Amino acid sequence: MRCPYCSNDETQVVETRESDEGDVIRRRRRCLKCDKRFTTYERPEIALPAVVKKDGSRVDFDPAKLRGSMMLALRKRPVSTEQVDAALERIQDKLLASGLREVPSARLGELVMRELKRIDKVAYVRFASVYREFEDVNAFRQLIRDI
Fold first, then answer.
1. Hey, how many other C-beta atoms are within 10 angstroms of the C-beta on 1?
2. pLDDT tens digit string along 79-114?
């Protein structure tokens, strides 16, 4: 690890700690040249699949974009941040477990709708009405009946 102060390549690990959740390792290091100390963090790199849009283009999976879409549907609804975080975690876990390198946006939309249906029915209807692009009121009524 290169020293951020003097750019020396020789550093020594002085202390290592795991986070409470066990998903991050914190290391205190000391530069052998300038003797300054600094902290580094080690996290696992997770390779989520790319999203294939309707037009065939591919974009990287973006949890922030997914959160934004869900929060829009959940606007002014009594749902906690913890519930949203848990739903996003479940979606990401399903994507990772699939082992796919690419996932169609339709599949991602279905995962989001399943989670929204689980945590808030109104948000589910809001999201589905935009996502499924209903052509008429009857299709919308059918969705509400299904709930």
1. 14
2. 998 999 999 999 999 998 888 899 999 899 999 999
